[in-house]
Predict the structure of Acylamidase.
Amino acid sequence: MTDTDTWRLSASETVARTTSGDLTAEAAVDAALTRMDAVNPNLNAVVVSCADDARARALDLDKARASGAPTGPLHGVPVTIKINVDQTGYASSNGVPALKDLIAPDDAPLVRHLQDAGAVVIGRTNTPEFSFRADTDNPLHGRTHNPWGKHVSPGGSSGGAGSSIMAGIGALAHGNDIGGSLRFPAAANGAVTVKPGLGRVPAWNPSQTAERGMLAQSMSVQGLICRTADDLHLAMPTMIRPDARDPFHVPLPWRGDALDGPIKVGFTKETYEFDLHPEVSRALDMARDALTDAGYQVVEVEPPHLRDCGMDGYRTLMGEVLSLMGPDIEKFGSPTIRAIFDEYFEQFAPYKDTDILRMMAKRTFYARAWSEFLQDYPLVLCPFLPQPFFAPDRDTQGAAGVREVLGSALWSYSMNFMGLPAACVPTHVAELPQGPQPMSVQIVARRWREDLAVDASAAIEARLGRMCDLLWQRMG
């Protein structure tokens, strides 16, 4: 196979070839690195190259296979890791210049598990400062661009992951999500992802000097951004393997029990006080029709307490951020990120004192209401954002910018507050006045049933196609 063919392979296709002997791990990694050299200078998605380590590891994998050693489920798959997660010998800078020399003494659980499964880390992807924007730019590594064009943000905070995976740099891209940081980049770039639920993927950075706040622990999750839903089914069983360093990890298998009869999908276009764009409405209709054709029973619903849950969740998180992260943001953050946080605190007035404790308790009320709701509707098809994805730096443009970027993202951060899994899958490319961009929908699932959300994403993809194929035609 030529490099042109090889870098286009999905993770599933790569594993099929590396385990059969049709493709070496060295060839798979070399193709990904060649692609990175070709497109990354215009994207700035991968900001730290791991090329030398990757080539050495690929050779070791090939030697082990030649000697008769068993291959892992991700044998030879090129992957990227976000720069806010520990990888031995590399800085976990989180986009902050003051942390540029914070070298990881050991691998985070997900990095260890991916490599134990045979994956090869080829680079580390960009994030905004403190990984707390839905756009990706920082004073340490600069701006990441969307491969669809500079008219649209690559999303954040896993913007480097979303940009790189869709441009063909590697077959799997690690990211994380505390309020939408897997789904924003997936939606912006036309990728597919699933935000795992609470406790699903073990998390811990050995470079940490203190534990994160309790709400951050409850809302933040680790995951993958992919070009195809099948790759989530391939790789997520590796991601959810247990690790003793996360004492609250939930050791459940990836696949849950089969459900009786056609799966009922709650369907809603509700965007509350925000206008629903015709292209978002069209995306929801296309996804609904795809699921119906695939045998799902789609029913219009009114989900419980969504707006209140979203606002209470974000105001509670902002209260914790103000108390625990505020001093570091003020001391180490750039003027840009400080101004953005000032606007966050203005629009999402942080809960304080006993109010924050009451809202952390009320989180159970919202989660219970949704747990009961999801007994009747195991999946919910809903908007992710009410409007097409925003332009770069929109969140630096005062109250209106922050309202468009995060204020309208009720369907995003409410799922983090309740700890529910939520997938994001593209439907079509909208030809908008500002330029072309992919449109996506969100699929919420019952607790610990990420597999159901990925199944539904695969059904939509089977009907509507992969966005990467359209993107690569445009990229040439």
User: Anything to note?
Assistant: The two ends are 19 Å apart (CA to CA).
